[in-house]
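Q: I'm writing up a methods section and want to include an example of the input and output format. Could you take the sequence below and give the corresponding predicted structure tokens, formatted cleanly so I can copy it straight into the document?
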Amino acid sequence: MARPGVGGSGAASAWVAEVWVDPQWYECQSSPDRLPAFGPPTVVPLRGSQVLIGRHSEVKAVVPHIDCEGDAGVSRRHAQLTRHGLGWVVEDLGSANGTYVSSTIGEIPDDPIDAGHTVESGHVLYLGSWTRIVLKQESLTR
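A: Here is the clean output for your methods example:
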């Protein structure tokens, strides 16, 4: 179970990341990789105060919490989410292709973030060749 927080209404809440294959983001990239089949997202509960986003590598001992497996445009240690107040701060970790943030799905950003960027529920991270991550805060039933 994700670490609960308390929202303004007093209800317990948990954060999740929906990891999608995004054909619109893919069209904006110059990736030699083929777009994989897409369907429903992989939903990852956000646990703890820091969450690594990247690709798994046994050789380099990298085990990201949000694994963007298959998207070669995502660096092994691409970005990190850090809890901040009621939301998160996303920081690019020197990735090869940058981390992009939008406040809504479908609004493709032009420029990568240059430093820590505050994100809230509903914000969208675009990484690599086709990865879209939607951050959501969900209420827990008691």
